Every structure is written in C-alpha cells, then in structure tokens.
C-alpha cells in the first residue's frame, strides 16, 4: 500500500505541473456568458452521489441537498449571513421566554398532489417526525426540546418547546424540516421517497432509475419562492435530469464531451483541465458546519489512552497529506468546526500535529515500545491496529484515497497499523453499531454550528461514536442552543472546541468544499447561502 500511495501522489504532482501553467480559468462571473435568463429547455447535471433516500426528513448526505430543494421546501431559508428569510412561512415570532414560536404561513401554496399547504400540514409533518423509528436522529437533536404544536388557524401554527432553543429555527430551515404532503406521509414508500412522496417545490420528481438517474419536471403552478431565490415565479427550465456518475474522471469527461451541461464535485486533478477550457465555467465554495474529521473511539483500546490518540494526531503531516491528495485545493482544518463558520477558533491552528518524535515518545510511554517484522508497534505480542470503515454512499472528495494517504503516514511516522475498508452502507452501519471500529470519519454541512455539535458532542448524541462525554460539555452544548446572542455562542463554542482538542477527541483534516463546472451557456448556477453546497436548479437557465 505504501508503494501505491507513493505512486498516486507522484502522479498527482505530475498533473499539477502540467496544469499549473495553463491559462484560461473561469471569468469573475462564471455564468456571464449565458446572458439574460431564458425560459424553457432541458438540463442534464452529473452528480457524484446518489441519494440513499429522496425523503427530506431522512436527509443525511450533504451531496443530496441540491436535489432535496428541487421538490421540497421549508418554512424558512437562510440568507448570506446565516439569518432567516421567510419561505413557506410569511413571518415568525418568538415568545418572550423563548419557549414558543408562532409561524404565520403563506395561504397560496399547494403540494404537487393538489392539496393545500396549511398549518394542519405542518403539524402532520411534525407528528410524523415523532413516530418511533421514523427519524430518531431528528427527534434526539433538532427536536430535542420540542413539546408540541398547536394549529391556531389555517395559516398560523404555534410550536412549543420544553426550554429555549434557537436551533428550532435552523430545523425549520433545514431539509429535515421540509414539508411533505400529508397524503404522501401515508405512502408505503415514505422512507425511501420518490415520485409518490411529494412537496411544494419548483420541480416535481417524476422518474427515478436506481443507479442511473433521477428526472424532474417543472411545477407550472409555482410562485412562492423566497425573496433571495434569484427570481420569482416558475423555474426557468422545463426539465432537469441528474445522472449519477461516481467517478470524477467520468463526470469531467461527460462535461468536456458535452454529454452533460453541469457537474458537481471537481477534484484537484481535474480542475486545471476545466479552468483551461474556454467553453467551461468553474466555481467553488466552502461548506459550513463541521470540518471533515477523524474521530477516535475512546470506548475501547487503544484509543482509550489519550497518549495513543495524541500520538496518532502527531504522526500525520496533515498539510503534506492534503497537498499530495488535493494539490493545494483543500483548506486545512484545525478544529471540529469548519474554518468557514463564524464560531471557528483560529487560535487552535498550529498547536499540535506533525511531530513524529513526540508520537514515538507517547507510544513508548504507553507501552507500545516494540515493533514486529513489518515495522508496526506491538505490546504484549499484539500489533497496534486501528480500523476505519468508510460507507461508500458517503465517500466524496476522494476520501478513500485520503484514508490511504493517512494510513501510509501513520505507519511510516509511528508504526500504527491503520486498516481502511470501504463497504456498502449496511455493512458500515452494522460495524458502527457493533463498535467494530477505532476511527470513524464525518463531516456535517449544517448551517448552524450548534446543530452539528448537538449531533456529535453530548452523551447519547446520534453521532457521538467517539465516546467522550462530560456534564460540562453537555451543559455547554445546551447553553449554546438556548441563546441567540452571537457573542455568547462564540464564547461557548470556543470552549467546546478547545476541550475536544485538549482531549484529542479527533483529528481535523480539511474543510469540505463543493465545486461546480458547467458549459458557459448555463446561467444561474450558485451555492446555497450559509451552507455553501450547490443550490437547486430553480434559478438555472440555458442561454440561447
């Protein structure tokens, strides 16, 4: 494997040298060549990730977000500064004690099946989310303090909380808070979603071929876009087809040969080619939420010893690994939170890592002082082995190659045997549920840092697979969700980041980013405010 990584990184370096001197590049406004918006036409968009479900309540893949917002909508959306803009709601008001929110709803919205959107529909969605086993990750985090909802009248709903939680607004602006037709909530295919599970969005999902593509047609009645959507009225495009092309070289090849109009997920090795093509445009944006992190399972050996956790962290030259895999296109992370967010603690930068001597000292001290014939550290005859299991549907940005590069680094620098497996979702879930891992990877594209931390940090949280808990941390996460004061939230989240760093709970790697490349005839492409992921096709057109 070490030889393979060396050859791979050398190949990347050669590509970088070939593309570094290329001219061209995207214009300051990548879509300027498309001209003024044009109504009509069919667009084909190649995407890296096929959704595991089309039900927004079950949403878990950041790469699927652009599909969710084609056919589903929420009460609120975000502006560029992380604030809230009315969408299906016309307005909202919080009670003086922060334990109730009253939403005034639009009265001119219809679901794709013809049913009217109203307060009863919102309550039906909330009731469905509380059904045992339906969306446990939502009820244990985003709706953790939800106490109930009251239909005041057809256009007014009151949401009550057990205690103040500003995160409830983020929920009502998230895919999990998107509105599904009450009729669809009774569908036998509800969890999987698809053509018979409908929303109110500008497009209607009418055809899905597993493993191949999903097709949307324009909702001709649509006229309730939020104020920051780019335009009002129906979508410009008549149809959009998303093709599932996992391999980046295949996506780029489909774009350069004009088989598709747009692609997302353009790796470092292909960006020079795209930027140099005068017929193409390129843009990118950092995601919000958390960084892409490796978390250490502290509930079992060897990472129940903080010295081993710190040694693993010190054994990796993250900058070097990222340069090798992403050729200068990745943004280094130093904390659980993405450096693109307002609560990121920049003081953590360069405070740890890339210290093989210290890694060796810590492992010697922890009793891993001997090595076997393959150069791996041992103790009492057992090899220092740790496992990471990657779920294939969630592998993006060449994270499998990144894992192999980290694998080579920890072996060379510290004699740690990192075993990497890329498996199907069921196998990965089973391994995680059984605790058959020592490292797990995760990134979140949550628009609110508090939502991400609530999922990962507290005791019993859905993604707290690292096992590190403390009453103080739990209280801090709760306090961050209870206040809307940015200064107080910054203070709280800074403390959490430093605690996790001191505990060596994780190894931050990079801030996830999304890239879009397209024919220059395509206009209106962009990224979702705050989240930084590609936007839906609502504002997209094909120029004449």
UniProtKB/TrEMBL annotation:
It is found in: Cell membrane. Gene3D superfamilies: Dipeptide-binding Protein, Domain 3, Periplasmic binding protein-like II. It comes from the Bacteria. The lineage of its organism: Bacteria, Bacillati, Actinomycetota, Actinomycetes, Micromonosporales. This is ABC transporter substrate-binding protein. It is a lipid-anchor. PANTHER family: PERIPLASMIC BINDING COMPONENT OF ABC TRANSPORTER (PTHR30290). The keyword Magnesium does not apply. CDD domains: PBP2_NikA_DppA_OppA_like_15 (cd08492). Its main location: membrane. Residues 1-27 form the signal peptide.
């Amino acid at each position: 494997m070490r030889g393979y990584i060396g050859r791979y990184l050398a190949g990347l370096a050669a590509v970088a040298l070939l593309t570094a001197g290329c001219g061209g590049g995207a214009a300051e406004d990548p879509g300027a060549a498309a001209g003024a918006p044009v109504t009509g036409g069919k667009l084909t968009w190649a995407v890296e990730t096929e959704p595991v479900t089309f039900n927004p309540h079950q949403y878990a893949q950041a790469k699927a977000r652009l599909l969710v917002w084609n056919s589903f909508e929420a009460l609120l959306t975000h502006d560029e500064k992380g604030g809230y803009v009315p969408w299906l709601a016309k307005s909202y008001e919080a009670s003086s004690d922060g334990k109730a929110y009253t939403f005034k709803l639009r009265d001119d919205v219809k679901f794709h099946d013809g049913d009217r959107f109203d307060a009863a529909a919102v309550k039906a969605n909330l009731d469905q989310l509380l059904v045992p086993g339906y969306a446990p990750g939502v009820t244990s985090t985003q709706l953790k303090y939800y106490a109930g909802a009251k239909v005041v009248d057809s256009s007014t709903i009151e949401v009550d909380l057990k205690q103040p939680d500003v995160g409830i607004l983020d929920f009502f602006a998230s895919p999990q808070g998107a509105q599904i037709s009450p009729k669809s909530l009774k569908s036998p295919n509800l969890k999987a979603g698809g053509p018979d599970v409908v929303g109110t969005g500008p497009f209607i999902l009418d055809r899905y071929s597993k493993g191949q593509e999903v097709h949307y047609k324009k909702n001709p009645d649509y006229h309730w876009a939020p104020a920051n959507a780019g335009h009002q009225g129906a979508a410009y495009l008549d149809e959009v087809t998303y093709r599932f092309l996992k391999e980046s070289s295949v996506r780029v090849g489909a774009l350069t040969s004009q088989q598709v109009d747009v692609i997302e997920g353009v790796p470092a090795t292909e960006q020079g080619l795209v930027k140099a093509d005068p017929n193409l445009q390129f843009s990118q944006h950092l995601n919000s939420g958390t960084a892409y992190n490796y978390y250490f399972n502290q509930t079992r050996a060897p990472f129940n010893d903080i010295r081993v956790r710190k040694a693993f962290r010190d054994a990796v030259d993250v900058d070097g690994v990222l340069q090798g895999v992403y050729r200068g296109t990745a943004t280094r992370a130093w904390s659980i939170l993405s450096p693109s967010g307002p609560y990121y603690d920049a003081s953590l930068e360069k405070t740890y890592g890339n210290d093989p001597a210290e890694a060796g000292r810590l492992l010697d001290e922890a009793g891993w002082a001997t090595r076997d014939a393959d150069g791996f550290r041992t103790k009492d005859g057992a090899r220092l082995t740790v496992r990471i299991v990657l779920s294939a549907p969630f592998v993006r940005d060449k994270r499998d190659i990144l894992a192999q590069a980290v694998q080579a680094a920890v072996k060379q620098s510290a004699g740690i045997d990192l075993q990497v497996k890329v498996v199907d979702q069921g196998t990965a879930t089973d391994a995680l549920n059984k605790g058959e891992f020592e490292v797990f990877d995760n990134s979140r594209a949550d628009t609110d840092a508090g939502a991400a931390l609530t999922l990962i940090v507290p005791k019993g949280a859905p993604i707290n697979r690292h096992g590190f808990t403390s009453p103080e941390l739990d209280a801090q996460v709760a306090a961050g969700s209870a206040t809307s004061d940015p200064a107080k939230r910054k203070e709280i989240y800074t403390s959490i980041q430093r605690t996790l760093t001191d505990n060596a709970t994780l190894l931050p790697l990079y801030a996830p980013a999304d890239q879009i490349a397209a024919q220059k005839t395509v206009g209106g492409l962009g990224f979702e405010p705050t989240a930084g992921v590609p936007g839906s096709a609502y504002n997209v057109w094909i120029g004449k």
